Amino acid sequence: MELSAEDAKLVTLARATRGRTGAAEGAAVRDTDGRTYAAASVDLPSLQLSALQACVAMAIAGGSSGLAAAVVLGEAAELSGPDEAVLRDYAGDGVVVHLADLQGRVAE
Questions:
Q1: Is 1 in contact with 108 (CB distance < 8 Å)?
Q2: Helix (H) or strand (E) segment spanning residue 53
Q3: Three-class SS string for 79-102?
Q4: pTM for the full model?
Q5: Which residues have a Cβ under 8 Å from the Cβ of 59 and sit 6 or more positions away?
Q6: 27, 38 in Cβ contact below 8 A?
Q7: What is the pLDDT of residues 58-84, one digit of tens each?
Q8: Nearest to 23 by CA among 46, 60, 49
Q9: Alpha-carbon distance 1 to 86, whole Å?
Q10: Residue 61 three-state SS
Q11: Contact predicate 83/52, CB 8 Å
Q12: Cα torsion for 1, 90, 60, 95, to the nearest 10°?
């Protein structure tokens, strides 16, 4: 699949973040102002967040008013219910979402 340069950057950020942490997932989002946020999944006894949930939390904490695109890198073939919900709650409809495998290959 051919990605725009901006979306390809999100894949690179998600892959690098997941690689640094060794987490199960990496994600990156671009907000409506063009800022990017990248995060890895968190799996602690007291806190569990998907990589996308962590990205959305970072965007909100950074003062973002919405999302334009997201990349989730992992083994899942589709977004989880909680990830779909967080995108819908925060960004509404129309957010471009790309799913990629652990090597960063985006699904068609």
A1: yes
A2: helix 51-61
A3: CCHHHHHHHHHHHCCCCEEEEECC
A4: 0.94
A5: 29, 31, 35, 37, 67, 90
A6: yes
A7: 999 999 999 999 999 999 989 999 999
A8: 49
A9: 25
A10: helix
A11: yes
A12: 20
End-to-end CA distance of the chain: 6
C-alpha–C-alpha distance, residues 24 and 7, integer Å: 21
Structure-block tokens of residue 94: 């129309």
Which residues lie across from 96 on neighbouring strands? Answer: 69
Q: How many helices (H) and strands (E) does the chain have?
A: 3, 6
| Residue keyed to tokens 């090597």 | 103
Contact predicate 67/32, CB 8 Å? yes
Both tokens assigned to 44 = 């602690």
Residue 23 is which amino acid? A
Q: Which residues contact 102 (CB under 8 A, 6 or more apart)?
A: 18, 73, 74, 75
Cβ distance 41 to 54 under 8 Å? yes
Condensed to tens digits (0 to 9), the pLDDT of residues 36-66 reads 999 999 999 999 999 999 999 999 999 999 9
Length of the chain: 108
